[in-house]
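Reading group handout, session on sequence-to-structure problems. Before we discuss, look at one worked example. The prompt was deliberately terse, the way you'd type it at a terminal:

> structure Lipoprotein

The input record follows.
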Amino acid sequence: MKKYPLFLMLALSSVAAITACSSANAENNSQTSQLAFMKDCKIVKQRAMTKDELAAHQQLEAMSTQMKNFELPMKDFELAMKKHELAMKQLGEPVVEHKDGKIVIDQSKIAQQQLIASDIEKLVAQYQPNIDQLTEQGEKIGQAADRFTGHIKANEPGLDYDNIQVLDEKHSQIHCGVYTL
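And the output record:
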């Protein structure tokens, strides 16, 4: 049960990484792939990607595609979790109440909560291999993104920018403020 919050954090991080990379989801070659460097939504420089940048970008794209495949089983997990959350909300009323100066504990609600908690633990255990796979892939994507941005930064020392976008045959328009590094 302790890994579920960690899963959410990693899943959100992975989604952010995939979103940051999605502007470049195309078949690239060094002649058509461009990097647009932007500052305050204005292009400060645009140039072709180097071979190292292109290779790192393609690796990042491949990993992002894999991540999307790994996320598919998690949709069932999310639906099942929503059902359990709804069941907990439907219990609604407090388990402990103060009546006539006494503390009254609703044992039936405690039992229902324990059953739901047990079901959640079983569900998490069932999906733990998927959660672990997503976690591992998220870490790999993070490393690939670091390699990609490392190549870019090495080739553009001193350039003042707050956003980079990959432009290619499928993504030729600049989207200001959407893909911030």
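Points for discussion. First: The two ends are 32 Å apart (CA to CA). Second: The beta strands are 34-39, 42-48, 96-99, 102-105, 163-167.
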